[in-house]
Design brief:
This protein is of the alpha/beta class and 328 residues long. It contains eleven helices and eleven strands. It is 46% helix and 18% strand. Helix 2 crosses helix 9, helix 4 (99-108) packs parallel to helix 11 and helix 6 packs across helix 11.
């Protein structure tokens, strides 16, 4: 190749790169110019759906664009998560990510159709929520210490209910078992409501439930709340101690929600989305609406969210390996 042709080839390459960068900047400047889809990988109802709709409404008010919440449930949230993985990386299709599909599924599924790190661009950790450890009053225990003592006196005799093999509260209960040095028998159900119903009926002895599903039964005296799984007490049930203060310092395992975009979404668009989302989370109405669901608002930078996911992935991978949990 001659020096002249090499020179023109380099000029062409510089022109193409420059045009692409200018296009990206221009795209960020007028973003969003049409409605955004926010995919919730669960059926309507529940904490993920509630979080998505509150945030979508606030972002819509700020940007002047409609944020369409689209429920795409199925296969342990894999279906909806894969929809976003395969979407155009232009900021107009986002995922309401959750601990289940992003940090727990990789620990228990051998062949996931997505990689939680390589296939997504973290935008912001939006919120966290604790689980609450509840037992039937007839069990005769009022504290975590009393429960552990009972479990140790009857290895394998106590049953715990979850929302399914490989579900968030399945691994959470196994984490508690590992920390407490106890062994219980797993009874999987198709949803929290069924697990809690059998807890009331005495078929299982303990459930790590989302607070909303259990607190009414606690207030009525049917169930006893032993602890919450977060490092701090929950504002919605401040009288319930944490597992950490019940004899297991450092115990902190919560569910979370966050916004993710497809990988290769331009950084300028991710930054703009982050700004809008964090501002929406600071709104007192947002905090109030999510707080009533026992969901605590966070808000983070993309880098902070990426680090949070990395730590959560490591935690649940370790639990799955120690407890030998695998979904085939």
């Amino acid at each position: 190749m001659s020096i002249r042709s090499t020179y023109f080839s380099l000029c062409s390459l510089v022109f193409v790169i420059g045009t692409a960068l200018l296009g990206s900047a221009a795209g960020a400047d007028d973003f969003p110019s049409h409605p955004i889809r926010l995919i919730v990988p669960y059926a309507a109802g529940g904490s993920a759906d509630a979080t998505a709709r509150v945030i979508a409404r606030q972002i819509g008010k700020m940007t002047g664009q409609t944020i369409v919440v689209e429920n795409r449930g199925g296969s342990a949230a894999i279906v909806g998560t894969e929809v976003v993985k395969n979407a155009d990386p232009d900021g107009y299709t986002l995922l309401l990510g959750q601990s289940g599909p992003i940090s727990i599924n990789p620990a228990v599924y051998r062949n996931l159709p997505y990689d939680p790190v390589k296939d997504f661009a973290p935008v912001s950790l939006t919120s966290t929520y604790p689980y609450i450890m509840v037992v039937n009053r007839s069990l005769g225990v009022k504290t975590v210490q009393e429960f552990v003592a009972l479990a140790k006196s009857k290895p394998g005799a106590l049953n715990y209910g979850t929302t399914g093999v490989g579900a968030s509260n399945h691994l959470l209960t196994e984490l508690f078992d590992l920390k407490a040095g106890i062994k219980m028998t797993h009874i999987p159900y198709r949803g929290t409501a069924l697990a809690v119903a059998d807890l009331v009926a005495g078929q299982v002895q303990v459930v790590f439930s989302d607070p909303i599903s259990a607190l009414q039964l606690v207030k009525s005296g049917t169930l006893v709340a032993l602890a919450v799984t977060s490092k701090d007490r929950s504002p919605i049930a401040p009288e319930v101690p944490t597992i950490a203060e019940s004899g297991y310092p450092g115990f902190d395992a919560v569910g979370w929600h966050g916004i993710l975009a497809p990988a290769r979404t331009p950084p300028a668009i991710v930054a703009k989305l982050n700004t809008e989302i964090v501002q929406a989370l600071k709104n007192p109405e947002t905090k109030s609406l999510l707080g009533s669901q026992a969901i605590q608002v966070v808000g983070s930078s993309p880098k902070e969210f990426a680090g949070y996911i990395e730590r959560d992935l490591a935690l649940w991978k370790d639990v799955a390996e120690q407890a030998k949990i695998e979904v085939k």
